[in-house]
Design brief:
The chain has about 675 residues and is α+β, with helices and mostly antiparallel strands. It is about 30% helix and about 20% strand. It is globular, with a radius of gyration of 27 Å.
């Protein structure tokens, strides 16, 4: 039976391998400190945080998120540790809440590895605090207990760590905030929540535990014993307490939380999608379309395109794509966790054999080693078989879904582009590339980003491909600009006439060949700006637009904008930054990156961060505010719930294809007709 604790109450722990699950309405930072008998933290090496997520016996999340799973093995803690404090803090410098009084009360639960709750605590009564000690796991007379603390600190992490006796508290707090900000900049933003009906019954991501398997849930960041969150594919994790289902069972419906759409959110929410969208009906969404006939017993269900909830086929396919993304993340996490468990088990058994001098040599020792290796191979083979089964099902679904995708979601080589017509309304999302994992080389999932863009794009022109075949910097810069043009063309193609304006800054005129499709078709607002005067003119106009729209919105006079103001969404492509930009231009770009997306001005930077090193930390906020993508496949993106390193592949136009020119020609013709 679960003990619902109040502040100051304690409860005995019957297990030493535990999870602490945290649910909050907004992304928060989770960490843990180790303390001695006097309750003092002896140094930074006794603090687990996103920059250093693992310590002996515990692991915390690498990112800020609305849901966390902290893994603990109390027997593996150093003998000098007598107390473990679970810390929660609001991330700074990322535009989120600055005090816990402005967010829903965090909920923490201590559970076993099977998901069964041992004790729970809701942190109520917080107001100006931005950091809090939620729980303490402490050793008393050889046994472990948990205590509900709820001690908050208005001074944030620095004050909290100082109170625990850490001399380097302020420096460590800065390190933690920097690690969180970098993690958010690298993350694939989780899409908005979907309703429980959108979850389809899929094959489970892991095998059923056998008599010698203590657990089968995937480890958090690959660590055995810490079950990875089941992320609902539209921005919220699935039911955290349920863990990953066993083989032969259907994954249960997710329990979405409507409080967050950019990071994993609460596990206990039961809300539905907010369908308040211009031109969209209100009320509950309709059920999904009829699916294929039920499969025969023992046979996997036949995939169907649009097998998800939504008002339209576009919305159903959007939900289905991110459902596939969730399933791939979950099944790979289960496989990696199973392999890690097999490895650790074999090491433990081999250590046991070697610890006895009588069995180190001779036939008895050799037999024990062979038995351990055979058991390891069996466990890995079982996990691989489950993974292969799930990958086969997802591959079959991808083969059905990919041809059915609408324009905004489709590859450039999809035949749907041959029937292109300028749309009448903005789609839900746009495709920026594909994502895959190393275990799924033949399976990729479309990377869909919601419209309008919430973050600008940084197309990194300074890194070679994974296999090192593209080391020429000039070639990488051309590919980066080609990627920017392809993304800009896709945005122009999916927006209605007059609702998107594209500007280009090319200070040295070095991108003329890449920009030719945009320039020759006539879809740009004006020719690419070159030279210092051109750069200053474009940046000044866009900065003034941001100022005017902000003032109008804050003053409640959105209908009183100057008559000549372009109210369409604005996209600014910046080539070869920071070459050709003075300090004023750099400041304006930072301002556009921070304030522009909220009022319809978006950046698409083509830059090598190494080239900007002369500015020092001045430009760090700029990079963190942009979503980094690459012109060649690279594994720099991470999902915000499990932390997989996903390989990103850009959505480029096939070589020698004329589809880009044909689409842009229709966009330009529609614009000319609209402007008459």
């Amino acid at each position: 039976m679960t003990a619902e604790l109040v502040r100051g109450q304690n409860h005995p722990l019957s297990q030493v391998r535990l999870e602490v699950r945290v649910s909050a309405g907004k992304p928060i930072v989770a960490g843990a400190t180790l303390s001695d008998e006097q309750g003092m933290v002896r140094g930074v090496e006794w603090v687990a945080h996103p920059g250093a997520p693992t310590l002996p016996g515990l692991e915390v999340s690498k990112q800020a998120a609305a849901d966390h799973r902290l893994a603990f093995d109390l027997e593996a803690l150093p003998p000098t540790v007598h107390r473990v404090s679970v810390l929660l803090a609001l991330p700074t410098g990322v535009g989120g809440p600055v005090r816990f009084g402005g967010v829903a009360a965090p909920f923490v639960a201590v559970t076993g590895l099977d998901g069964s709750e041992i004790a729970s605590y809701t942190l109520t009564g917080l107001d100006a605090e931005s950091a809090v000690v939620a729980l303490e796991l402490y050793r008393r007379q050889g046994a472990w207990k948990v205590r509900a603390v709820g001690q908050g600190y208005a001074g944030g992490l620095a004050e909290l760590l100082t109170d625990q006796g850490l001399p380097e508290a302020r420096q460590l707090a800065g390190t933690i905030n920097d690690a969180v900000a970098k993690g958010l900049a690298r993350a694939v933003a989780a899409p908005p929540p979907r309703t429980p009906e959108a979850d389809r019954s899929r094959q489970a991501a892991t095998s059923a535990p056998g008599p010698d398997q203590p657990y089968a849930a995937p480890g958090a960041h690959g660590t055995p014993g810490a079950a990875a969150p089941q992320q609902s594919p539209y921005g919220t994790p699935g039911p955290q307490g349920a863990g990953v289902p066993q083989t032969g069972r259907a994954a249960g419906p997710a329990q979405p939380d409507p409080s967050s759409v950019t990071q994993p959110s609460s596990t206990t929410g039961g809300g539905s999608i907010d369908y308040s969208h211009p031109g969209r009906q209100t009320g509950a969404p309709p059920p999904p379309p009829p699916t294929a006939p039920p499969a025969q017993p023992g046979q996997p269900a036949q995939p169907v395109a649009g097998d998800a909830t939504g008002w339209s086929m576009e919305e159903r396919l959007y939900n289905q794509v991110w459902g596939m993304f969730e399933d791939l993340a979950r099944t790979v996490a289960a496989y990696r966790s199973a392999v890690d468990f097999a490895d650790s088990r074999m090491e433990k058994e081999l250590d046991h054999v070697l610890s006895d001098p009588r069995s180190r040599i001779g036939g008895q020792g050799d037999a024990a080693r062979e038995a351990a290796r055979a058991k390891h191979a069996l466990l890995v083979d079982q996990a691989r078989a489950v993974l292969d089964r799930d990958l086969a099902q997802l591959t079959a679904e991808a083969e059905v879904v990919e041809p059915a995708l609408p324009l905004a979601y489709a590859r450039w080589d999809n035949p749907v582009w041959h029937g292109y017509r300028v749309p009448m309304e903005v789609p839900m999302a746009v495709r920026l590339g594909d994502l895959s994992l190393s275990e799924s080389e033949n399976l990729s999932i479309p990377m869909l980003v919601r419209l309008p863009l919430e973050r600008g794009l940084w197309i990194d022109s300074g890194r070679a491909s994974l296999d090192g075949t593209l080391a020429d910097s000039g070639q990488l810069r051309r590919l980066a600009m080609d990627t920017a043009v392809a993304n800009a063309a896709r945005l122009l193609a999916v927006y209605p006439v007059g609702e998107l304006t594209v500007h280009v800054i090319d200070p040295a005129g070095a991108a003329a060949s890449s920009l030719a499709p945009l320039v020759q078709s006539g879809v740009l607002h004006s020719p690419p700006a070159v030279g210092a005067a051109g750069v200053a003119d474009v940046l000044t106009r866009l900065t003034q637009r941001v100022d005017l729209v902000q003032m109008a919105l804050r003053g409640g006079a959105a209908d009183s904008l100057p008559p000549g103001l372009d109210t369409a969404e604005q996209v600014l492509i910046v080539n070869d930054f920071p070459h050709g930009f003075d300090d004023r231009a750099v400041t304006q770009l930072r301002y556009l990156a921070d304030e522009g997306p909220a009022v319809g001005v978006h950046l698409m930077m083509v830059a090598d961060r190494e080239d900007a090193a002369a500015y020092g930390p001045l430009l760090d906020p700029l990079w963190r505010s942009l979503l980094r993508i690459t012109p060649v496949p690279d594994d720099h993106l991470a999902d915000p719930w499990i932390g997989h390193a996903w390989t990103y592949e850009p959505a480029l136009v096939p070589t020698n294809s004329q589809v880009l020119q044909q689409v842009l020609a229709q966009v330009a013709a529609a614009r000319r007709s609209w402007n008459r």
